[in-house]
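Troubleshooting log. The previous structure file for this entry was overwritten by mistake, so regenerating from the original sequence record. Sequence copied from the archived sheet and checked twice against the printout by T.R.
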Amino acid sequence: MDSAHHTHDAPDWWVRPGLEVVTGRLAVAGRDVAALAAEHGTPLFLFDLGHVAEQARRVEAALAGAGLPHAVRFALKSNREPEVLEVLRGLGPAGAPRSVGVDVCSPGEMDWALAHGWEPEEISYTGTNVSDADFAAILRYPIRINVDLPSQLRRLGRLAPGRAVGLRINPRVGAARQYVPAGHSADEELHFGMYASAKPTKFGFYPEQLDEAVAIARECDLTIDAVHFHICHQTQTPDLPRLDAALAEVVPMIRRLVDAGCPIAEVNTGGGLGQAVRQGEQDLDLAAWATILARHLGPLGITVATEPGEFLVARSAILVAEVVTVEDRLGETFVGLDVGWNTMALRFVWGEAVELVPVAAPLAPRSGAVTVAGHINEAPDLFAEQYPFPPVAEGDLVALLSVGGYCQAAASRHCLRSQAAAAYLPDRLPG
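Regenerated output below.
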């Protein structure tokens, strides 16, 4: 980092190897962002592919350090770009101790994973509201299947008696972090309960449904040999007590299945590992996370799997956009960009915060407040409101950070806007 441009008010928390400030300008993988934008045009995704591999290895190391037999699978829904998948596939061949598998949630994703080098045995399927047609496509291959509703379990039993299956459970408590737009209130239970809470969700068998699940499995000649749960979303270090409490509810559910004769060999903890996405937040302490998993799940003596998506890829990319409008709107400054929600849906679908930095002076003091708007012809196409930002002019470049997950994957052609180009940087040049 160029310390000469650092000020107390500057948002320097995001600076890391691969995303740095070099001679006062933003650089990705050692390359000048403005120069790359001039070469490729805007809007432009820039990927530091080395970061993807580093994050995967960090997750593996945390689980191994906690003494857990483990498996890591990448949540394909977060990013399916071939360049990203090539990095993950390259971490180890099928069956190798440190290889990374994939978790998919549709037949299309399953076919995509197979086409990009994964063997069926490395793939798990965790979907919801699975149809007969979905199952017919999935059952062509010996992949792991996690089923999350009684009706789905019956359907699988009718279509594939004798098969092994994982049971997705819902302990009614979670550790998910959900951002709430300014001016809106957040119910505590909803705030942390997107996937599992006292409020009913679409996912998983509740504790009182476990006996029914075992009965269905016996009736349909299915073997429940795995348990899956998803209770996190952007979970950061301050949320770990909630994870601890949720796992205390999960383990008795697993033991009930074991006591009922289910040969549980794997528990999959889902994804949702979090990182800071704005000033003042804390990255998830992976060692502390793995220690909590080990305390609760280690005594079961089974494989502990995890399926991170955004945690592996989010910070690997920035999205570069041009400022095309700076206008005073009834006393409020609007900054308009040449990109919109069709390209970067994190705020609009998941309610996540977005951090922006100027490309030419990333660490400039944020002396004003702006509303950052996109170019989609819809009123909600706003990236940020009353957002602290330095002075900016039309023609300047800005970078939206932590956009490597769920942006390209969820992109649309709304208003027939084109998708952003992307440049994938496989190595880091010296700064």
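The chain has a mean pLDDT of 91. Archived copy saved in two places this time.
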